[in-house]
Amino acid sequence: MPKEKPTIQQLFFSFLRLGVTAFGGPSIVAYIRKMAVEQKNWMDPKEFNAGVAFCQLIPGATAMQMAAYVGLSMRGMAGAAASFIGFGLPAFFLMLIFAILYTSTGNVPVVASVFSGLQAVVVAIMANAVWSFGKVTVKKWQHAGIALTAAVLFWWNVSPLLVIGLAVLAGWLLLAPPGETELAGQVNPNPISAKPILILLSSAAIILTVMYFLNPDLFQLSLLMMKVDLTAFGGGFASVPVMYHQVVEVNQWLDGQTFMNGIILGQATPGPIVITATFIGYLLLGGVGALVATLSIFLPSFLLVVGLAPFFNKVSTTPIFHKVIRGVMCSFVGLLISVTMRFAFEIEFDVLHVIMVVSALFALLRKVDILWVVVIGAAISIWLIH
């Protein structure tokens, strides 16, 4: 149980700081857990696990959604908004700077070079997340079987919906029901009034209507990003093929190489890879386009979190549902393994990169603050360019 609920300001600045180091896509969820459950004691571990399972079941960038879920559990919708915005701001501003530089230079050689070195640190961050999240999730051979099966299926690019569905089935059929002590301590988020959600939906609808009449291009951009977010089952990485198809092939707003440059910048930027929306929006319609594209790529999943989480948690204390949650949690460990392997295979395996991976992983396992690991890794990467 939480000792003391954080204020709105504490939520915002805590997630702002975490957002600066939010490399590695879904692996950052492990660091959110470390902060919210272990360091600050804001949440019960079972509630956090239920949140991860919930965010796996709905579309959107999992790490961003978990930021909102923690804030929702602590301070209702205002807390969800503070955590969500704080967590996403560093990625937005950094990607906006990269987009401005890109339009000035026409390429990203320096950023790509920096990322080449920083990529080793990212792999270490993700490997540490696999370890830290896996050791609290995988307790029995059945858990390991579900996690490894999910990792293989994610590696084969099987639909995330199918993988999660199989994890739900496996959890229901293979896992033993929890005891009463395991169910105890489950905490539901603060009651959510429908009024602020309706106000947010109404405001979004009004803004979309105004854009439709005053700036149809901005309207099309916003609508497309919302559609991409609503198809991102399995995390932000799942949205990349959909975004590529819509932006490059269907609408032909950017050529393939420019889009891929945006993905490179998205990987070099903390936060979910869908922050590439900021890059696309800026190249198409400037600063306003960047802001609209960013808000649109995150708004639907934010509304799903604040709208559905209270209902999800009302049933998540039942024994059967607890088994299902554990199955989904194991599939999330499998997702982390798969994504870590994909990143690792992108590294140029020379002596320097291996040393950076091992050193960064050693530092993280020794509880060195992730912020220092990223800063030092970036400094080494920049130094190696010259």
Describe the secondary structure blueprint for this structure.
Elements (H helix, E strand, L loop, with lengths): L7 H13 L7 H12 L5 H13 L4 H44 L3 H29 L3 H15 L4 H15 L5 H4 L10 H21 L1 H15 L9 H11 L5 H13 L7 H40 L3 H27 L5 H15 L4 H16 L1
Q: What do these coordinates show?
A:
The protein is globular and about 55 Å long. With 386 residues, the protein is an all-alpha fold. It has helices spanning 8-20, 28-39, 45-57, 62-105, 109-137, 141-155, 160-174, 180-183, 194-214, 216-230, 240-250, 256-268, 276-315, 319-345, 351-365, 370-385. The longest helix has 44 residues, at 62-105. Residues 180-189 have low confidence and may be disordered.
Tell me the overall shape.
globular
The structure class reads mainly alpha
Mean pLDDT: 82
H/E series? HHHHHHHHHHHHHHHH
Ranges where pLDDT stays below 50 over 5 or more residues in a row are 180-189
What Rg, in angstroms, do the CA atoms define?
20 Å
Helix percentage range = over 70%
Described by strand count, sense and barrel closure, the largest sheet is:
none
Number of alpha- plus pi-helical segments: 16
Number of strands: 0
The proportion of strand residues reads under 5%
What is the CA–CA distance across the termini?
51 Å
Describe this structure in a few short sentences.
This protein has helices at 8-20, 28-39, 45-57, 62-105, 109-137, 141-155, 160-174, 180-183, 194-214, 216-230, 240-250, 256-268, 276-315, 319-345, 351-365, 370-385.
Descriptive terms for the model:
single chain; 386 residues; mainly alpha; 16 helices; 78% helix; 0% strand
